[in-house]
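pinned: reference chain
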Amino acid sequence: MPNLITSLLARFPLGKVGAAVAVAATLVVAPLLTFSETTLKGLLDRWLSQCIVVVDITQEGTEAPIVRLYSFGDMPESLPFTFVAGKGLIHHVSFLNHVDQKTTVSESNVLVHPLANQRCPGDLCPETSEASERLTVRIKPMSSNYVYQFRILFEDPEAHKQMKVYVRPRLDEKIACRVETTTFSNFVARQSRGVQVLNIATYVMPHY
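pinned: its structure tokens
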């Protein structure tokens, strides 16, 4: 590697600053070129195989709150999400078609989930027939390729202030997935694919 650096600098006289930049660039690129392909694949597989779902609850003004689910990594076939009213009853939960309703201005993904435009009570939860203080919706399929957004309508407009969302699997159901509310530690899971790729790079570099 020193011979390569010397050869490059001799061929392209860059001055002291340019030489320093060239050496620094070479020192950064060299590990990338020599890093074991098997090791790199292992690091990426470990990163991408994580299962993380982040629940983000937002509300603007007097509008009904929107619950956004951000999924990252290998998802289970389905997940049951329970929406709980702080008080009173939930009138219904609507799975939004984010393309039709333009609920996410910056979202470039136009792949719409097959359950979009359905409601609970209704097709989204056939076993439930009326408003309740808690409504459970099983989302299937789960995939990080989809956009998950729900509008929650309460009978009491003030009930949203104490609303909660959680996942509770059946006794015979094994879910190796973390489900979290929004925090700094899951910031990357809520970002675009481009930002996630950059973060993967920062995860891999320290292992060189």
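why pinned: The chain is about 30% helix and 25% strand. The chain has a mean pLDDT of 76.
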